[in-house]
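> tool_call: predict_assembly(chains=two)
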Amino acid sequence: MKQEMMLIESQIELAPRIFELTLKGELVEQMETSGQFVHIRVPRSDLLLRRPISLAEVNHEESTCKVIYRVDGCGTRAISELVKGQEIDVLGPLGNGFTTDFVKEDDVIFVVGGGIGVPPLYELGKRLKDKKAKLVFLQGFGTKDAIFYEKEFSELGMLMIATDDGSYGYKGHTGHLIEKALKIYPNPTGVFACGPTGLLRAVEGAFSDHPHVYLSMEERMACGVGACYACVCQSKEDPTVNKKVCDEGPVFKSGEVII
Amino acid sequence: MSRLSVKLPGLDLKNPIIPASGCFGFGDEYSKYYDLSLLGSIMVKATTLEKRYGNPTPRVAETPSGMLNAIGLQNPGLETVMTNQLPSLEKYDLPIIANVAGSSEAEYVAVCAKIGDAPNVKAIELNISCPNVKEGGIAFGTSAEVAASLTRAVKKVAKVPVYIKLSPNVTNIVPIAKAVEEAGADGITMINTLLGMRIDLNTRKPVLANGTGGLSGPGIKPVAIRMINEVTRAVDIPVIGMGGVSCVDDVIEMFLAGASAVGVGTMNFTDPYICPKLIDELPKRMDELGIESLEALIKEVKESRK
């Protein structure tokens, strides 16, 4: 973990309120596992809490990484106003990422994402593609305008998209996509998911006895390093125990925590 | 003695910078980022007799120049803290301040009787001011009589000096400070968080699952300075000041208000390296302000009030 003033190489609005930020710096060297996140300091002195944002892509050769985030409030709005050439205070990489050791060539892997939970699945997809796995991306968005990285994900594997309002792809949610995908590939070797709670529950429900289901959780954070106990979720094994999303997650094995 | 060192009951601090309880876990969380031996001390997370699950999430919310938290004293309980957390800090050259919380006098007494057995625990911080738990915490800190009674009870069993952590959520903090001094407290730490609330415009419900939470961060610093100034004029026992410290000037302002050491809380979240940075920057700022040593400054502030 390092704190660094990273150089902004580009800032692009991919969809309304969805921004892709490309950062350059030495900190990239330490970004080893997909599913980890960085903690970005808002460039306003009155906003104290950093924003946890997952890594969407890591390029070790260029020492760059990309994060994709949604403007949801004044903090992310301030970050979205930064431009190429400016610097931003980044802490990371933080948290535990996706376990991919079990994946072998030609394994069918489902990668399920929803909304702003989709970005970390891109770096994951690239790494799984390097392992020559067969990838099936199942993605849910609110509406057509909110979709991003369609071309990029299509280049890594099969991509099925659902929108809540039916304006693009299948009308419905990612649970419906899982049903469709299971008709084509009934026994995926692994399932990875990131997105809203409903999506994670749908994934857990559809693959209840599966040995390789990994879910990336989100919770309001303060420190990002395991010290403040703000971002906890309940352990399934022992409901009197809390697990810290920032430090023990954000990726948990299915069945490890209560969603 | 170095110019940054300060001496308080039970605590020979090489510098006055102490991460505040609740903002630094049990210390080990930040040991990945820098050598904890750099710090003056650590006020570790509140320990209760049994493990505590804490409050539902969301537990934090942002506010202008501050934040609200309602963690709810989550901790693994006395036994685990004694066997795991405190021993893991023994490798550092660091006196530990153990923050103790409870929901009854008997629970406070039980924890205080035991926690000083840890060889690195050199002082207890008695948490009678947590605003985020239904039982205990602040209920013990808003009445001078109750605070004094609890102080007397824990002083009978504690093997190390006891500092009482006072709440700002009272009409007048001075009588409570005087009462705990009279009851035998070795020192005071102050201030804990201010009780606050935020409401979500979409759901029309409180942002925090607990409803209310404790306000901390630079926004509360003037309240802390005012209260430390009031209390240190009224009592003779030392005060460790905290509440919104974010830069080296804030550290010195705490000393000028009457504090003898300084806790750093919320800013650890904004900048995990804030404590070593403050320690590093302090001598230069002291030079600029003509401060020879912190002990000399403490003495000067005390004498100027006579």
